[in-house]
UniProtKB/TrEMBL annotation:
Protein name: DNA gyrase inhibitor YacG
PANTHER family, sorted: DNA GYRASE INHIBITOR YACG (PTHR36150)
Cofactor: Zn(2+)
Cofactor binding note: Binds 1 zinc ion.
Organism: Sphingorhabdus lutea
Domain of life where this protein originates: Bacteria
Binding site for Zn(2+): 9, 12, 24, 28
Amino acid sequence: MDKISGTKCPSCRKNSNSEFAPFCSAGCKDRDLLRWLGEGYRIAGERVDPMAMDQFSDDE
Ligand SMILES: [Zn+2]
């Protein structure tokens, strides 16, 4: 049963579980999703910057 897959969990590098593939558990799957959402948040935050500068431009 140990030889089933050569896939490893991208989150913690343990052997993945076919039930949660490519992750080893529901916890690692959630953690990866949260990280992905966190990066999306950061990009959205950077988008606000040009708009703030636009206000300065309007003042001139
Ligand atoms: Zn894992």
